[in-house]
Specification:
Blueprint lengths: L14 E2 L1 H18 L5 E5 L5 E5 L2 E4 L5 E6 L13 E9 L3 E6 L2 E2 L1 E2 L15 H17 L5 E8 L2 H5 L4 H4 L1 E2 L1 E2 L7 E2 L5 H16 L4 E5 L2 H11 L6 E3 L4 H10 L4 E7 H8 L14 H10 L4 H8 L4 H10 L4 H14 L7 E7 L5 E5 L1
Parallel strand pairs: 7-10, 8-12, 14-15, 14-16, 16-17
Antiparallel strand pairs: 1-13, 2-3, 4-5, 5-6, 6-10, 9-11, 17-18
Helix pairs in contact: 1-2, 5-7, 8-12, 9-10, 10-11
């Protein structure tokens, strides 16, 4: 368990990706094989040129003539599911030149088309593969070695951790993905989450699904599953990142998009916010009152909406007074989406209440 967040604000600490961990550990294991040197730190160069020393928790020979090394994944202050996990590499030398990658315990295998890797490949993404290849190639040259490397990457407990990610839905089975484009995890950048949204859309498209439902959470997913009978692969867990879905559809359009979220979050999208998290946007009760007024709400109802404590209270009050605020919010959210997605994408909006009941829609 992580320490509690301190009350006094402080600069957030960056961390390192699983790709950086895999690079450091594979380099250390290969160095042990080629030079006999077992180190407790492996220094690597990140894609943008930074030199980073990464501490190792073990670096040792294995009974099969290879070597292995491990490091503790440090995600800094980012809420990363792999923070604290041991990422390890097992390396074997081979006569055949080049670097070949294998999925070890806790690392998944690609089983569906649509990702950057072919079906059947270990879920080790292209940039980490390139980082490892470059470091091992340089090490081989330093040691006058002309053969190749078989590199197996694993994550202790990775199979269980993967169940907390979108990997099962993306068709990555057996464990986690080894990720990273810069080697660094920026705290609360949420880049990995957004990347998984994009991957979810790409995988669904590649597998022939033309109707996708982007949902803010479990309740909205359940609503869309019940309403349309969509399979999990067509349900995109967007969380607060509505903009990530809408903007990606400009590059990867589908025939039909249903967006579904809690009434409060959808009201933020209706007001033009593409990040629905409370850090970046808030529910605008005066705006809800103004929209209600445009649909016939009297002055007393408008003032009552403004005086509400929550969006759900405003929704319930409006329904009692015959104002279809759920539909109104969906209409405005639909207008925002239509300004972003291509014309060939048919878009519709659904709002749900806290019980998961659909309380508004617009097509």
């Amino acid at each position: 368990m992580r320490d509690e967040t301190p009350e006094q604000p402080a600069p957030l600490r960056s961390g390192y990706t699983t790709g950086s961990c895999a690079t450091a550990t594979s380099l250390a294991a290969a160095r042990l094989l080629l030079s006999g040197l077992a180190s407790d730190v492996a220094e690597i160069t990140l894609p943008k040129g930074q030199h980073v020393p990464m501490p190792l928790v073990f670096c040792r020979a294995t009974d099969d003539g290879g070597a292995e090394a491990g490091t503790v994944k440090d995600a800094g202050d980012d809420p990363d599911v792999t923070h604290g996990a041991i990422v390890f590499a097992r390396v074997q030398l081979s006569q055949e030149p080049g670097v070949r990658f294998h999925a070890g315990p806790g690392v998944g295998t690609v089983t569906r088309a649509g990702l950057t890797l072919p079906v059947g490949e270990p879920a080790i993404n292209p940039v980490p593969r390139r980082m490892m290849t470059e470091h091992l190639t340089e090490l081989a040259a330093e040691n006058g070695y002309t053969g190749g490397f078989d590199v197996t990457i694993g994550v202790e407990g990775g199979e269980a951790l993967a169940l907390k990610t979108m990997n099962p839905r993306l068709g990555i089975v057996g464990g986690l993905s080894i990720l990273g484009t810069t080697g660094i995890v920026r705290p609360f950048s949420c880049s990995a989450y957004i990347a998984s949204i994009h991957q979810g859309i790409d995988v669904a498209r590649a597998n022939g699904y033309a109707h996708l439902a982007a949902c803010t959470g479990n309740a909205s997913e359940d609503a869309m599953r019940a309403h349309y009978g969509l399979p999990d692969i067509a349900l995109i867990e967007m969380g607060d990142f509505a903009g990530a879905v809408l903007k990606h559809l400009k590059r990867a359009p589908v025939a039909r998009l249903s967006m579904c979220g809690g009434f409060g979050k959808l009201s933020k999208l209706a007001a033009g916010h593409l990040d629905l998290h409370s850090r970046h946007s808030s529910i605008d009760l005066p705006q809800l009152a103004a929209w209600a007024a445009a649909h016939g709400a009297d002055h007393a109802t408008q003032q009552a909406i403004i005086a509400c404590n929550t969006s759900q209270q405003a929704l319930a009050l409006s329904r009692e007074r015959g104002v279809p605020l759920g539909d109104i919010v969906c209409e405005h959210a639909l207008a925002v989406a239509r300004d972003i997605v291509p014309a060939e994408v048919s878009v519709e909006m659904f709002a749900i209440d806290r019980q998961g009941t659909i309380v508004g829609m617009a097509r």
